[in-house]
Design brief:
two-stranded antiparallel sheet, alpha/beta, 374 residues, 39% helix
Length: 374
């Protein structure tokens, strides 16, 4: 699909490299020996491929031991805490798996700046120091100026501010960065271009390559960090999407060595009245997380409230380094003035106190912020 007139094009070659490597990846071609070689030595691309393969499934305990060592080496026993803030659920895209699908008949809302400030005050009162601003992907209902003002309000109250909105051009990311944003999260959803087109029926999100290059444009716009994710379960073989996502982060790190990179681990969740089939088991999600940690030992890793409390408690400190708390996916719910429906169903409703207590029981250190602005 052709770029829209306002879309910035990049030609770094990263997308061709990632899609080429992924096309050649055959998860069924690896042996137990390949898995053990990856665990006992340096884990390059071939080792990462082996750790994601079915041959690695019987070796989750060995993978967990290696992952725990890598996590302790690079992050100590600290686990960062944050919460998302949804300020708008209007969307211009027709994505068949998403509750914000523009065709879905849900309660739509966008907070005015006074409402955003109320939400931010309610979150700040809990003691959290990091917030992630989210919107549906509608430039008409949540334009760059509006998102910038939301970020500006957030930066007055929080030490770290991230955004998870529609992909932008470099100059737009520069503006959002000037307003106080530190990092950008963009999920590619699936790295299979054909499957991607089948799932995204209408809207600017259909342009695969523009979305793929979002992290690169964000870094060129001055952002400190970028986060990657693939929505596990959208593709027949989740292993290929996980492989592509890891390679994408590695290639960005190669081209932009100053960048802080992190990985997210979302699976499909029921949304918008449609009960999406969850095609990835918890054991398989754990395998992906461990493989990410061993392949990208320096990268942060976030586990979301899509997962059950027992799973989230088990994975932090092992491979995940960041966990959300006190989560609400509706519009205006933090301050008790709900206006719009949420994007998906969460599985862990615990507040900040409950999450921090769970971390301390595991001997982990809850960290509200790991960054000081100068």
């Amino acid at each position: 699909m052709d770029y829209l007139d306002n879309m910035e094009m990049l030609d770094s070659g990263i997308m061709d490299t990632v899609l080429g490597e992924t096309s050649a990846y055959d998860p069924g071609s690896f042996s137990e020996r390949d898995v053990m070689d990856a665990l006992e030595g340096e884990c390059g691309i071939d080792g990462f491929a082996a750790l994601l393969s079915p041959a690695a499934e019987p070796h989750l305990e060995e993978m967990a031991e290696r992952a725990r060592d890598e996590t302790r080496r690079h992050f100590g026993n600290s686990v960062c805490l944050f919460t998302p803030l949804y300020v708008s659920n209007y969307c211009s895209n027709e994505c068949v798996y998403c509750g914000f699908n523009c065709r879905n008949r849900i309660n739509r809302a966008a907070l005015d700046l006074e409402g955003v400030a109320k939400e931010l005050d309610a979150i700040a009162a809990t003691g959290l120091k990091e917030v992630l601003i989210l919107t549906g992907e509608s430039r008409a209902r949540s334009d760059v100026g509006y998102i910038g003002e939301c970020v500006r309000l957030a930066s007055e109250r929080f030490s770290t501010v991230g955004i998870e909105v529609y992909p932008m051009n470099s100059d737009e990311y520069a503006h959002i960065h000037d307003c106080g944003a530190d990092y950008v999260t963009v999920f590619q959803e699936t790295y299979d271009p054909i499957r991607y087109e089948q799932l995204h029926l209408a809207g600017p999100k259909r342009i695969f390559s523009y979305r793929f290059d979002a992290q690169e444009r964000a870094l060129r716009g001055g952002m400190r960090g970028v986060a990657f994710g693939t929505l596990l379960g959208l593709r027949d073989d989740f292993r290929k999407d996980a492989f592509a996502c890891g390679l994408h982060a590695m290639e960005i790190q190669r081209h932009y060595p100053h960048a802080e990179t992190s990985m997210s681990l979302p699976r499909l969740r029921p949304a918008g009245g449609v009960d999406n089939h969850v095609a990835v088991t918890e054991a398989q999600l754990l395998q992906v997380s461990l493989a990410y940690r061993i392949f990208l030992p320096f990268a942060g890793q976030t586990i979301s409230t899509r997962e059950r409390p027992v799973f989230r408690d088990g994975i932090v400190g092992l491979s995940a380094t960041k966990i959300s708390a006190g989560v609400s996916v509706g519009i205006g719910e933090h301050s008790g003035e709900a206006h719009g429906d949420g994007q998906f169903v969460i599985s862990d409703p615990r507040d900040l106190a409950e999450i921090t207590e769970a971390l301390r029981r595991k001997g982990l250190q809850p960290v509200m912020t790991d960054y000081v602005r100068t």
